[in-house]
Amino acid sequence: MTDTTPTYSGPMRVFSGVQPTGNLHLGNYLGALKKFADLQKAGHDCLFCVVDLHAITLPVEKGALVSQTRQIAAAFMAAGVDPAKSVIFPQSAVLAHAELAWIFNCVARMGWVERMTQFKDKAGKDAERASVGLFTYPVLQAADILAYKATHVPVGEDQKQHLELSRDIAERFNREYGAPGFFPLPEPMIQGPGARIMSLKDGTKKMSKSDPSDLSRINLIDDADAIANKIKRAKTDAEPIPGTVEGLEGRPEVANLVGIYAALSGQTATSVLAEFEGKGFGAFKPALAEVTVAHLAPITARYRELLADPEGIDRVLADGAERARAVSEPVMQDVRRTVGFWGA
Ligand code: ATP
Ligand code: MG
After folding, report:
1. Of 6, 86, 234, 245, which shows the fewest CB atoms inside 10 Å?
2. 275 and 165 co-located in one domain
């Protein structure tokens, strides 16, 4: 990948997580999963986590976590992550996450966490009734990364602010406990036209698993007809496709569709616009549907195959949990000693 910070030297360790909160969508794929596979192929040491502790910050349907956890693990593999090379595991199976999150809750400052926009978006108007967990979610995220002393975190653009917080927490821990360099300052890897895919119904809102409208997103499990139908019904405007990127200004829905086309076909937005300049959506939308289906069909097919074998997924998760514990436990021993707990 080209989006690693060129100044970083030393061994890289990659960590990223996805919540088992619903249907994975094109945004998750382009913003995160596709990069996971690329980083693994580049030979990096990678851990990919199904973050079920994050999922319970909002209400979860009774009994849904197990199957949703398997779905995310299957999607990692369908997108090209090989469990023999990368560690795939459920967050709740490794106690280090919760333990380090508590310690980090005592390192992070209220003012830092209060600035996080995701809490404001997810808590909505009634923040008083949101769980405390939803508020401290980004602190747990810092613990997820740093329990493995991970150095690089491939995520979508929506996670940029949380990654900055992780760096602040690592830096303050190192300073407070007189342990310079104890935790690395993790680098976000946010790049490409797929780093921020917007809702098909509102170009100012990101595509989300938790959006109540299924028409707002393209799910990895959608078949060709569903994809074509959602693209057909995607919000646009009455103007034709502009010839330049500047012409997309003030047209967020159109910019999003052009961005998706560019990301999936491996072109720049400029070359997509050159091809479709002056055409209407009657021409553009079927072309976009075709590119989307062609790209996703093999991934979807593999995803369905993997889901048909839940025991196989469980074996991957159990093995991954063991490997994740083996990496995080020595880090936690050092953390306990550094903080100065009895017996450490
Ligand atoms: P939720 O609505 O439950 O928060 P989500 O769709 O935001 O779900 P997450 O599990 O929170 O998904 O995020 C998983 C990964 O997908 C993260 O790296 C996140 O940055 C990335 N991601 C999420 N939405 C998008 C998007 N619209 N475009 C690009 N990347 C995204
Ligand atoms: Mg999210």
Report:
1. 6
2. no
Residue with tokens 């619903």: 22
Q: Which two tokens stand for residue 22?
A: 């619903």
Tell me the pLDDT tens digit for each residue of 134-175.
Answer: 999 999 999 999 999 999 999 999 999 999 999 999 999 999
The preferred substitution site among 208, 211, 214 for testing ligand 1, maximizing ligand atoms within 8 Å of CB, is: 208
Residue 205 is assigned to a structural domain of this protein:
no
**Has residue 2 been placed in a domain?**
no
Q: Based on the domain organization, do 240 and 118 belong to the same domain?
A: no
Tens-place pLDDT, residues 198-234: 999 999 999 999 899 999 999 999 999 999 999 999 9
Contact assessment for residue 30 and residue 263, using Cβ atoms and an 8 Å cutoff: yes
Please count the structural domains in the chain: 2
Count Cβ atoms below 10 Å from residue 28 Cβ, excluding itself.
25
Nearest ligand to the C-alpha of residue 28?
Answer: 1
Could you tell me if 314 and 301 lie in one domain? Answer: no
- Does residue 330 share a domain with residue 188? yes
The number of the ligand nearest the C-alpha atom of 51 reads 1
Catalytic status, residue 209: yes
Tell whether 55 and 97 lie within a shared domain: yes
Catalytic choice (85, 122, 149, 205): 122
Which atom of ligand 1 has the smallest separation from the CA of 210?
2
Ligand 2 centroid to 292 CA: how many Å?
22
Q: Whole-model pTM?
A: 0.95
DSSP per residue, 152-208: EEE--GGGHHHHHHHHHHHHHHHHHTT-TTSS--PEEE--STTSSPBPSS-TTSB--
Q: Which domain holds residue 324?
A: 13-195+310-339
Question: Is ligand 1 within 6 A of the CB of residue 187?
Answer: no
Marked catalytic residue, from 160, 209, 279, 285:
209
